[in-house]
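Researcher: Structure for this, please.
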Amino acid sequence: MEEPGFRDRADSEAPALARFGTVAIIGVGLMGGSLGMALSRRGLASRVLGCDHDPSSLQAAVRRGAVDEGRPLEAAVSAADLVVLAVPVPALPRLFGLIGPHLKEGAVVTDLGSVKRPVLEAAQALPYPEQFVGGHPLAGRERAGVAAADGDLFLGRAWAVVPGPSSRPDAVEMVAHLAQAVGADPVLLGPDEHDCLAAEISHLPQLAAYALAAAVARGASGTAAAGRGLNMARRLAGPGLHDTTRLAASPAGLWRDLALANRDHLVEGLKRLQSELAEVSRALEAGDGEALEGLFQQAQAARLALFP
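Model: Predicted structure, C-alpha cell format:
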C-alpha cells in the first residue's frame, strides 16, 4: 500500500501541521489518557473532552490533565472535530452506532485498537464511513488505567494508520498527523497486513509471556517444600525472568478479547512457536548438543535481523 508522504515530514513540522481543534477521547484509560496528556502538553488541541463509563476514571483523567473536562458521550462527540475511540475492540461495534447520529459534519473518527479488520467492518455502520480511519499505536504498558497514563508513551513508537475502503484522504492525513504530533512514526498499512503483523510482533509475544509465567510458577512450586518454591524462585530470579514475563502482568480480559479478535493469524503463530519449542525439546531429549547449538544460533540470527 503506497504511503501518502506523511512519514518523510520532519518531526519539527508536526505541531504546525496538526492543530486538531476539539478532540473527544472516548475511554480515558492508559491509551486514551496518555493521548490526552500528549495533546494537552503540546498544545495540539483547543479542548480535549473525555468520556468514560467509569466516573472515577473520568475524574482521575481531569485531575491528571489528560482531559480538560468530562462530558456525556453525545455531548463530547457532537462538539468534536476529531473523535478518538480508546475502548476495547469488542465495544467498538456498539459504539459506532451510538456516536454516528451525533458526529459533526467533516469530523474525523479513529480508534486505538490493535486489531483492524473487524473494526473497519464495524465502522461501515457510521452514517459516513469515510469519516473513519483505523489507528493502532504500537505502545503500551502492562499496567492499565489512567493512573498509568504517560504523555510520552508514544515517543519513538510506530503508529499504524489503517484506512477503510472509503476513508477520505484528508482523514487519513489527519490521523497520520495526530501520530506524528505526539512523537510517533505513522506507518500506512492495509487491515489484513496490519492484523498479520500485529499477531507476530505483539499478540504472539503476549501469549508466550502468559504461558512462560504459568509454566515457571508451576515448576517452581514443585521444587521445594510446600509454600517455599515460589518464594525461593522470587529471591533467586534475575532480570531475564522478569523481562521475559513482564507482559504476563497485562489485563487478562483485554488480551482475551484481542486474541479472539485476531485468532486466525494468531493460531498460525502459535503453531510456529510450538514447532520451535518441540525442536528444542527433541534435541534436549536426545542429548544432541550440535542440534541444540544450531537452533540457538538460528534464533540469535533472527533476533539480530529483527533488532540489528
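Researcher: Any notable elements?
Model: Confidence is low (pLDDT under 50) at residues 7-18. The chain has 13 helices and eight strands.
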